[in-house]
Amino acid sequence: LTSQDSARERGSLLKQGVKSLLVKTRDPPAKYLIVNIPADQKLDYKKLEQFSGFSKLTLAKPEEVLEQTGCELGGVPPFGYKNELSIAADFKIFENEFNEFNIGQRTVSAKIPTNELKRLFQELKIRTAHITQ
């Protein structure tokens, strides 16, 4: 369920994991955004609000995560969702030689060289910024 659990199971460093969070606006109608950050970092909501243009952001509830992504908490990948979602990523993800993340299930992970992940993010037009504390 947690990034720490995933890193321990994979036998890797926490910072090599990508934590994919679903955030939403508090004011209805809710707008959703996937945010990818290194698993050892915390999201800075003020930086994300400035970057995204959304205001009053909060984490989505587990049932919203399942509804919007098709995945349970702990299994959300950095891209490739059942619904079309805006996606953002923190630049610190690109500081690793490789990154690991779950691919739709809590028990299935991928390990990808960072240069390939960066290329994929560019192709998918995933916007990057400094959005961690």
Description:
The protein is α/β, with parallel strands linked by helices. Helices cover 26% and strands 30% of the residues. It has helices at 3-10, 45-52, 62-69, 114-123, and strands spanning 18-25, 32-38, 57-59, 86-90, 98-105, 108-113, 127-129. Strand 5 (98-105) and strand 6 form a beta hairpin. The mean pLDDT is 94.
Write the layout of secondary structure elements.
Elements: H1 3-10, E1 18-25, E2 32-38, H2 45-52, E3 57-59, H3 62-69, E4 86-90, E5 98-105, E6 108-113, H4 114-123, E7 127-129
Parallel strand pairs: 2-4, 4-7
Antiparallel strand pairs: 1-2, 1-3, 5-6
Structural key phrases:
alpha/beta, single chain, globular, five-stranded mixed β-sheet, two-stranded antiparallel ribbon, 133 residues, 7 strands, 26% helix
